[in-house]
Give the backbone structure.
Amino acid sequence: MKKIIQYFNVFFILVSLFFTTRNLSAHPHMFITKQTVFVFNEKGLEGVFVNWEFDEFSSVMISEDFDINKNGKFEANEESEIKKNYFDYLKNYNYFTDIEIDKKPFKVQYIKNFRAFLIDKKVRYSFFIPCYVAIIKTPKKFVFSQYDPTYYAVLVDAKKKGTFLKNAKGFQIKKEIKVNKKKYFKYGAMTINPVETTLEMKRP
Amino acid sequence: MFKNSKKVLFFVVLLIAVNAFANPFTAKEKIETKENKFLSTTIFSQKFVIYQYELNKKLSFFMREIKAKKNSNLLIIFLGVSFLYGFLHSLMPGHGKFFTLSFMLAEKRSFKEALIFTSITSFTHIFFSVLIILFLNFILKTTITGSFEDISSKFKIISYSIITLIGLFLFLKNVLKFFKKEINVEKVNKRDKTYLYSAFSVGLVPCTGVILIMLFAISINYIKLGFLSAFFQGLGMFLSLCLVSTFALLGKALVVKKTKRFLYINVLIETVSALLILLVGLFLLLSL
């Protein structure tokens, strides 16, 4: 009888694994390579400029639908259709962006300067996330990560220039990129920990 | 056995918290998501997804190269990559593994029947994906991004409805066995073809992965390559489902011996599995 109970335990643990998830059948179908640029001005951090490059299969899906005149690039009208039909809904997910400033969450309400391109048959989105952080002599901690919580898309840092700083001269900034193992999301038998970029910023 | 009743209750409650999958780029309503710290056991890490990304890049690269160079060696490698991609992709959540496992546990089935079940599931999954993309692209000549989600959700309604009904049927059948005391492990109704309908209904949900590759093949005007890739992805999926059904049948054979006491355990496993099919099918249907 003990053996049977053990087997049942294994069975229930396996079944539970399926259900301890927000998304029973979620698995990635879209791969996005991202570049993140932290943009500064004379007062401090101005925001984050993001560049997403879709994988070729997803690019074909988007370009087939939105490159209406099939000329291999997106004109202004096509770009605005993309924004309306294949980007703006991401507001529901804060544009896949998690930000913390000194351990307080910052909700991304809007973005600026959305652009869509078709370069080398790959679709690229670029946009700016305004997020003002005044830099003073006391250090401030800014934590940034991007991931799709529904797990339809996987966002991966570009191998070259995945993350960099712009106009950061005059500030002391320590950058660290690491997986946050304290934060995790489960999809079936799979656990995903977000990759976070942490900036410790202060004036010298 | 009652020690496990809390666990049964636990996962039934958890069912309520599960969401069905949708494309966040086109979904007008937000899918509620929360951080989940329960059960940190991980079978697949994020590296597993990165391997898929690498295979995904290789597939598109090979498709372009084969078209340009018409090289048969490249074609063989491409078919191998397609097979591997199909196998790895179907190991991710979804793709009928849960239902395959449950159907194998819910009924007395032989390995031969398990093979038939998994092959029908895998190739129905591929067939409908290919059919949808051909229909959208050549007959409706419509946009893919929105239409696919619409058609896919209709297929899901049909699939989950059939699964729920089959789950209900199997559950009632197993419960009746207790009342009628018809508990006999040797008794297999060879004419009972419920499992064929089950396999078909599980496979009915189209696979976005196959659709994207087919669409890519159409865009480079080399649709034959899309068909070949889809077939080899189907073989990869067949392998992963075969592993799941073998695990289920072997596991059940280990637990159940041919003595009267174990016959009741066998029926209990079958009844619980049928109930799971019913509940998961119903939940997925309601979450659409």
Observations:
- Chain B has a mean pLDDT of 76.
- Residues 144-180 of chain B form the longest helix (37 residues).
- Chain B touches chain A through 73 residues (CB under 8 Å).
- DSSP finds ten helices and no strands in chain B.
